[in-house]
Amino acid sequence: MNDSVTYASAGVDIHAGDRAVELMKSATAKTHGDTVLGGVGGFAGLVDVSELKDYRRPLLASSTDGVGTKLAIAQGLDIHDTIGRDLVAMVVDDIVVSGAKPLAMTDYIACGKVVPEKIADIVRGVAEGCQLAQTPLVGGETAEHPGVMAEDDYDVAGAAVGVVEADQMLSADRVQAGDVVIGMDASGLHSNGYSLVRAVVASAGKKFEDHIDDFGRTLGEELLEPTRIYSADMLALLAELGCEKLHALSHITGGGLAANVARVIPTDLSVRIDRSSWAPAPVFHQVQAWGRVPLLDLEATLNMGLGMVAVVSADAADDALACLQRLGVGSRVVGEVMAASDLPGTSAESDSLTQGAKGVDGGAVLITGDYASQ
Q1: Which reactions appear under catalytic activity for this entry (predicted)?
Q2: CATH number, domain at 297?
């Protein structure tokens, strides 16, 4: 007589999943305010949105994302409590570029085998990110995929929804010639370009445990630095300047600085950005040097030290910089908006011209000059 087949013998441990939920409960609960109804374990998260009745024309903004192959670094080092912050940043900071306030977030974890402590670490990071974003984590799912994923493998994804008043929405339509472009400091590589970074690290024979003097820590610690979460600070900046002065925001993710800025510039306008206005962190220079990566390829892959960009009216630039300083966000003017016909042509081999990106028929962005030294 054949042995019976059970869910457990097929590789799915329901009890481990329940244990993971118990371990993550307290971290998730810390993100809940008065608007969240119910707790962990419901079929769906519930959020009281009674405030929307006071909107004249509320628009819902939604976003979903993951963290890409940065997961391979976390798995290689067996450190899982920071990757959740990356996930939150990738989602809520895409929402806030429209001027929308994130209302709620959910997460999804697929893994080869549920290890409760590991899952709890991941969700703890998500919860910490949600606290920084002032956004409740209202639900999630952990799925065990034996035979499809290796036991130690996992992937994460997140989704969020936000709201913005229709006539307060930020967009390319508000951008005008004469506006200035403000770049805000990234915390490091953030969560894009890790396929390039991992290939460079491998080709250079580096190990995650190697101490890198320029970083002041190990390579692994540098590569796992969590993505900066800008959403709460951007909402504070918008509240201070208003959409009459703060015209557009751009989250600098895949595709780099030029491609993402181009998405919020109308086709009849263009932007000139001067590299000499900021100094990228040492990690960007090391990736370029270790892999002999061409500058333009590097810039089309990594954020080069700027994780968020604001386009503001020229007369509001000083107020914007002062506000960001109070919020603890390092920033500076890095460029200007001009008529497309006034944009100079490329004059040096290092000049980079980008016209639109990611399916958006946007304006041109020219990056010139040489980066400042730290």
Answers
A1: 2-formamido-N(1)-(5-O-phospho-beta-D-ribosyl)acetamidine + ATP = 5-amino-1-(5-phospho-beta-D-ribosyl)imidazole + ADP + phosphate + H(+)
A2: 3.90.650.10
